Structures are given as structure tokens and as C-alpha cells.
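Researcher: Here's a chain I'd like modeled. Treat it as a single chain, no partners, no ligands.
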Amino acid sequence: MTAATTGLALAVGAVTSGVLIVCAQPLLLRFRARSLCAAGAVLFALAMLLLARIALRSSGDVYFPQALRGAGTGLLYIGMNGFAFEGIDGHDLSTSASLFYMLRQLGGTAGVALAASALDGFGQTGMVAALVVLAVAAPLSLVPMAAANRRASAEEQARVSA
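Model: Modeled as a single isolated chain. C-alpha cells:
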């Protein structure tokens, strides 16, 4: 792909993600944060599998998978934000937000570095493997959130029972 085509393909994902992020408030009012995260993880995983297929074949349309990736990351960001900040008091919000966004940025940076390393070290096969690992990792990233929800539900039930 040329630089212009690559930029256009990445822009499709960025615009899709941006549109969903702009719609964050109405989405969080209508859906639970964990539902948005789950939908985002599924879309992201599907996008990574489609991109792995394209990388394996060395050809294919990247615009649809990039749009899915953008939708997936947009929903994940909205859901993570909603989940991360729903129980935080106002006076702790700025510190929590700073930590949350720093860790999110570090995670994204580490992911890009690992993908670049896989591509550099193993060529096309490494890129396919990296995309498949990302496809598996997206749904696994929901496990800590589910555990926190279960713990909160158990604490609430114990409090109600007492």
C-alpha cells in the first residue's frame, strides 16, 4: 500500500472510533459499561482476525476491518471509562483519571511496540501471530472487569442480607 492509502485506511478506523467516543454519553445512558466493553472486545477481536487473514494472504480490503477496529476500540474506551469512573467520588476523580489514562497510553504503546517487534523479527508470519494474539487478548481483557463486578455484587448482597 502507498503512504496515502495506508493513511486513509487508518483514518477510517480513527473516524469510526471518534464518532463512537463522541456518542459516549448517550451510549452510557442506554447501555451498561460492561455491555459496551463486551461489544467492543468482540468487534476488535473480529477485526484482528480479519486483519490477520489479510496479512496471511498479503492482499485484501483493509477498510472494513479498520472500521470494525475503530468501532471496537471506541466501544472499549467508552465502556472502560464508564466502568472505571462509576464508583469514584468527585475529589478522587482527577487522580483516578490521570492514572487511568496513563495506564491506557502505556498499554497501547506496549502493544504497538510488541506488534512492531513481531513484524521486524518474524516478518509476515510474526504480524499474523501478533494479530491473532490481539484477537485473543481483547476478550480476555474483560476478565478483571467481570471479577470486579462479581465482587461488587457479592458485597452488595452481603450488605443487603446483613
